[in-house]
Amino acid sequence: MASGTASNRRHRGAADTATDAAEDAADSRGFELAARAGYVAAGVLHFLIGLIALGLARGGAGSADQSGAIGQLASSTGGTALLWFCFIGCLALALFQFSEIFFGAKALRDRKKLTFRLKSGGQAVVYAVIGATFGRYALGGSSDSSSTTSSLSASLMSNRAGAALLLAIGVGIIVVGGYFIYSGATRRFRRKLSGLPPDRIGTAVTALGIVGYIAKGFALGVLGVLVVVATVTNNPEQSTGLDGALKSLRDQPFGTWLLGAVALGLMAYGVFMVARSKYQRM
C-alpha cells in the first residue's frame, strides 16, 4: 500500500514537472514573439482579402477569400519567404491559444473559465487552419476555399443531421459577426491591448479597430445569412464562403459602394491586426 502511494506521488510529481515545463515554454519570450507574428500573418491575410474585394467593387475579378489572398501573396516577389513566415507565426499563435486553455484560465473564476477556454480553443483552431493553408502554398500546393465550402455544404445537406449542423453553423457565424460589430462599436477590443499610447498612434489604432471590427462583423453576418439561406433552400451552390458573401453584396442595390466600404474596412482590420501584434496582451 505504501509503495503504491509513493508511486502515485512520483507520477504526480512528474506530471507537475511536465506541466510547469510546458507553462514555462508558453511564457518564454521567443515563443511569445513567434505567436505575435501570427497576428501579423492574420493582418496580411485580411488586408489582401480587402484589397481583392476593393478590386471586385471596381469591376475586377478575383477570389476575395483566404485561398485567393494567399495565392496572391504566393505569386508576389519574396512570396515564398512570406508564406513560411506566416505559417510559423500562425502555428505559434495556434499553440499559444491552445496553451491558454490550460494555463490562461487559472486566475479566472469558475463561471468565466469555460467561456475563456472555449474561445481560446476556437481561436486555436482558426489560426491552425490558416497556418495550414499558408503551409500548403509554401510547399507549392494550392486550394479553393469557395469550392471546398460548397462541396462540404453539399455533403452536409444530404442528410437531416448534417443540414441541422450546417444551419447551426450559419447561425453561429451570424452571432460571431454580431459580436465583432458590438466589439467594434463599443471599443471592447481595447481590453485585449496593453501599452497603447494615448497619443495619435493610440487614436489611430483604436480607429482602425473600430472600422475593422465592424466591417469584418458585417462580412461575417452576410456569410452566415448565405449559409442559412443555402441550407433552408437546399442549394449548396449559394454557400461559397467569404468570396461568395462579398460578391453577393456587389449584386445588391448600391452594392458596389457597400462592397467598397466593407473592403476598406477589412483592409483597416488588417492594419489593426499588425498593430495588435505589438500591443496584444499575452
TrEMBL record:
Annotated protein name in UniProt: DUF1206 domain-containing protein
Give the signal peptide range: none
Q: Which Pfam families match?
A: DUF1206 (PF06724)
Q: Which organism is it from?
A: Arthrobacter cheniae
Region Disordered: start-end pairs: 1-21
Q: Which keywords label this protein?
A: Membrane, Transmembrane, Transmembrane helix
Annotated DUF1206 domain residues: 37-100, 122-187, 211-279
Q: Which residues cross the membrane?
A: 39-61, 81-103, 124-141, 161-182, 203-234, 254-275
